[in-house]
Amino acid sequence: MRILKSVFSIERSLGMILLVTFVGLYYADLKYNAGYLDFWRNKVFDIYQEVKPREIPAPNDKPVTIIDLDEQSLETIGQWPWPRNVLAQLVQNLMEMGAVLVAFDIVFAEPDRMNPASVASTLEGLDEETKARIKGLKSNDSIFADMIKKSRVVLGQAGRPNETEGVRGPPVKKSVAVRKLSKNSPEPYDFLPRFPSLVRNVPVIEQAATGRFGGHGIFSVVPGKDGIVRNVPALFGHDGQYFPSLAIEMLRIATARPTVLAKVNEAGMVGVGIAKGLEVKTDRIGQIWPYFSRRDWDKYVSAADVLNGTADPAKIKGKLTILGTSAVGLRDIRSIPTERDIPGVEVHAQLIEAIIHKKYLTRPNYADVAELTFLLFGGIILIILVPWVGAKWTAALIIFVAGGALGTSWYLFSEQLFLLDASYPVVGLLAMYTCMTYASYAREETNRRQTRDAFSKYLSPGMVERVAENPDELKLGGEQRDMTLLFCDVRGFTTISEQFDAVGLTALINKLLTPLTNAILERQGTIDKYMGDCIMAFWNAPFDDDDQEYNGCTSALAMLAEMEPLNERLAIEAEEEGRKHIPLKVGLGLNTGPCVVGNMGSDMRFDYSVLGDAVNLAARLEGQSKSYGMNVVLGPPTRAAVKDRLATIDLDYIQVKGKTEGTYIYGLMGDGEVLADPKFKYLQNLIFDAMETYRAMQWDEAQAMFDEIRDLGSDEKKPWILEANLHVLCDLYDERITEYKETPPDPDWDGVFIATTK
Length: 758
What we know:
- By secondary structure, this protein is of the alpha/beta class.
- The protein is 44% helix and 20% strand.
- It contains 25 helices and 27 strands.
- Strands 19, 20, 21, 22, 23, 24, 25, 26 and 27 form a nine-stranded mixed β-sheet that branches. Strands 1, 2, 3, 5, 6, 14 and 15 form a seven-stranded mixed β-sheet that branches. Strands 4-10-11-12 form a four-stranded mixed β-sheet, with helices on one face.
């Protein structure tokens, strides 16, 4: 029995459950192609490429030049699309300059709007004879097609995720063959990326590229769920046929091969043979993983320069050229692991570079097996060792194994361009170790625990009557309300607590929280929770409070008023005990907004609490109080509700930590008596004007105003009794103004300050 208990201990049972769970998740994700682990894994590989991107080749080693439809080209030639006789001239110029071929990261799906027939039909005032003569002229599409027939051109095609009338059909010419490496190899069509329909070029142009030196390639890419392009399919499936990607087709035409060869084994695709000595490995679904570099503007040549004959011939001769666009208005922007905003044509150019220089990443079909095996055997070892040798020695083993696995993964990437993800197995093993160690600790501490049944459910005082009247309230659930939230925290409490032992610190906390809590409860507030020296409270729940903002603000003022007599008592106690007295000071933040309030937790234990973005902002405002020299910081809705009854001032337009948008914040300076003081009214207006002048970037004027504010806010002149210090506020803006004078913000700056602290 003892042996069985040892074998099937809580720790080992938990470890087995976790191991089965992690292995099962991996297997299920692999079998059903869910992609959740791929998302995780891809982020790891992104980090690798960001840390060590592929080196940009030297000028002589760059096989690709991008003919860029940039802003300059659009300004010089005109808006896109250009007449196709202009594109014919572009192709001719590139061929005469020695380009190996010209590819189009563009599809010409509609007839040229500048074809003579189209122009004649739209012009008014022409006689029929003139119209007939114009319509008899050769179309721009035909001129472009004739040039394609005489040149090496790869036309682009685009895949569509839905059925589209009139674009189905087989390839214009077959350029893909399949080689099965074993008799059990599946058809690649079963797992290749497929498009229900294609967007193709108009027939006269499409047919022009059917000669020996012409081709068609799909330029569509399939980004990940996060929008990042990490891989490019070598082949696509459509209507039972195989279509090459643009990059693969360009390499086929460049090497003068009639077909490319898709190689398949039992697990899926293994690679694509383009020419002798030029074969690229793929993953099991036929994707190529380029090893991306940083953006290389040196391989871009403006299309206008090619047309004008001013392009550098060295960037054209002997190069594979692709016509694409970096113009923002044409919206062909992509993200890759090394760059977040690049022209889409860059993806194809980098793919060709990676293939030619053999700098593409590989993830063979057995990589999944290797990762799963590492997780399985590592988990079994943990299950055996943790209860046997203890957490200390097992931790050393985990660190060694995890470090070795992650180091191996990095080495394989950086030196072998091999993608092996060690992060999931390592995280799984760490989770197992942590849970098993905790289970062991919990088991050893079981006899020391005190019963908790009596404290399984907690109610705030305000809820007692409500629950007594309706016991059904004692269940999980919540409702949405507009609420006012308050956060209060003691400044420098860590330093203060160093003077006390655990008993003394508990007594100090109780002396502090009692008067502060009473100030809240006396004004219809509800205490949500105590977090050490911090108090969280709210208004307008569980009972309606039509004046919640005012009650919250006056509670804050009352709490500050309680601090002076409290510090006097604590000073006497410190003198009697022979220790140094450090006065307690608190900072508060208040905000109002929609929240969900109710019983939150589990069926066995829950609290009456509140959640919402307004709660998070209130906490952030409390954190900002010290930075601005304020006792109390208010959010916009709270200040708007009390501005005519309580004294407030403008503080800043700030983007607090964790938020993406700015918010105005305000300081609470006193009650209605302070608000009525003419000196405060003048100071309040002066602070508002100073803020507006600062946001208008009138630095000298703003600085002069803040100098006056500093003087009026001095202790001998301030019209309030709080410790709010305008010197801190003025010093803060003086620092910003000095910095902005040296480094001015953007012309469209809205005055927001991005906070880096809570």
